[in-house]
Design goal:
Number of domains: 4
Helix content: 40-55%
Bound molecules: zinc ion
Structural class: alpha+beta
Order of helices and strands: HEEEHEHHHHHEEEHHHHHHHEE
Number of strands: 9
Number of helices: 14
Radius of gyration: 42 Å
Distance between the termini: 98 Å
Shape: rod-shaped
């Protein structure tokens, strides 16, 4: 748990100077928080290669500045493509939510309870060690008294008692050392005032965090108090976020990979499949009416037009009705005219009179004709136009 009771002086403390120092030199790990909305600036590690990741910003259409995180130090040095690139806003939000969750009043209460229990246990251990010291002191006093009480003429006994007294003094010394060392190692428990202050901070924190008046720098500072570093790994579907907290714990989060602009404006595969079916059997104008009637939209969320559908079919290699019928062996007017040895105009005339069958394939009135059709007999003295 970081020391959030630290003073609020405007002059940089030694600790802050030390924290800022790594911003210089090659290993710019955890540099000081800068202005700019990237919450995790300076804390990011690439999950692919382990290098530090950098922040770039881009501006959205509405003018807001949004961060992108990329691993490009190697790329810049060697002139190759960045190792990883990802949009930062979703990652920042996930980490902020995690930290705010971790600092709920409930979680803080649990931490305070544990801290009090540890303080109680430390006090118990302290009492036991103090008893050891006391016992050693009594033993040393008794040994001294025995030595002083012996007849000085009895040299052998006096030597033995003197050795015993020395031993007891060494025991006392060791016990005292143990006691002092243990005392130095344990921090005093939280005072009631400190506990109250922490509780108040925890319940104010979410509001303070979301307050637009709170400078981004302060949010970044808070994150740095709690998070040592954040390792990012982008997979095809997710961004995996591994957090190392100041206390040494590790946490992992996963968010869906933000869709790129291209993906956001791409017609979804299900729609493409439906378009394929509809277009295979209908003219573009009919298909547009059917698709819009079903409430389907293209990549930009707008209704289809004949033009947009034509472009989409071309871009996605979706065969239009004409292509499909041609593939099925239907003939153009010219082909049928040649087959039957008549003029093109005759074919059109026969079609209009229902003597041969065809199918309209575009808005301009082009028809394709079923193959293997016979020239109608020319009864009733019909004049057949023969090619010149
Ligand atoms: Zn990398």
């Amino acid at each position: 748990m970081p020391d959030i009771s630290a003073g609020n002086s405007t002059r940089p403390t030694q600790a802050q100077l030390a924290a800022n120092a790594p911003a210089r030199g090659d290993d710019r790990r955890a540099g000081p928080p800068r202005e700019g909305p990237a919450l995790l600036q300076g804390l990011l590690v690439c999950g692919k290669c382990g290098q530090l990741m950098t922040v770039n910003y881009h501006r959205r259409c509405n003018g807001t500045l949004v961060p992108d995180y990329s691993c490009q130090l190697e790329g810049i040095a060697t002139g190759t493509a960045p190792c990883q690139n990802m949009a930062g806003a979703g990652i920042d939000a996930a980490v902020a939510d995690f930290v705010l969750d971790a600092l709920t009043p409930l979680a803080i209460q649990a931490a305070i309870t544990v801290s009090c229990e540890l303080a109680d246990r430390a006090a118990d251990a302290d009492r036991i060690r103090a008893t050891h010291v006391e016992r050693a002191r009594h033993a040393a006093d008794a040994a001294r008294r025995r030595y002083l009480a012996v007849d000085p003429g009895n040299r052998l006994v006096a030597d033995a008692l003197e050795a015993d007294w020395n031993q007891r003094l060494r025991d006392l010394n060791d016990a005292q050392d143990d006691y002092d060392r243990a005392r130095r190692g344990t921090s005093p428990g939280l005072s009631d005032a400190q506990t109250e202050r922490i509780r108040a901070l925890a319940s104010d924190l979410p509001a303070l965090w979301r307050d637009p008046a709170t400078p981004m720098r302060e949010r970044k500072r808070l994150i740095r108090l709690l998070v040592t570093d954040v390792t990012l790994l982008k997979t095809s579907e997710h961004i995996n976020i591994a957090l190392r907290l100041t206390g040494g714990q590790e946490h992992s989060l996963s968010i869906p990979r933000p869709r790129t602009a291209w993906e956001q404006h791409t017609t979804p595969p299900e729609t493409i499949a439906i378009i394929g079916e509809v277009v295979a059997d209908h003219l573009l104008d009919e298909a547009v009416a059917i698709l819009n009637g079903r409430g389907l939209t293209g990549g930009w969320g707008k209704p289809f037009t004949i033009n947009s559908l034509r472009h989409l079919c071309r871009a996605r290699n979706i065969p239009a009705l004409r292509d499909r019928l041609r593939a099925d062996g239907m003939l153009t007017r010219e082909e049928l005219a040649q087959q039957l040895g008549v003029h093109r105009a005759t074919i059109s005339q026969w079609r209009r009179e229902g003597l041969i069958t065809g199918r309209r394939v575009d808005g301009r009135g082009e028809y394709l004709f079923h193959p293997d059709q016979q020239a109608p007999d020319a009864p009733r003295g019909r004049k057949t136009v023969r090619p010149a």
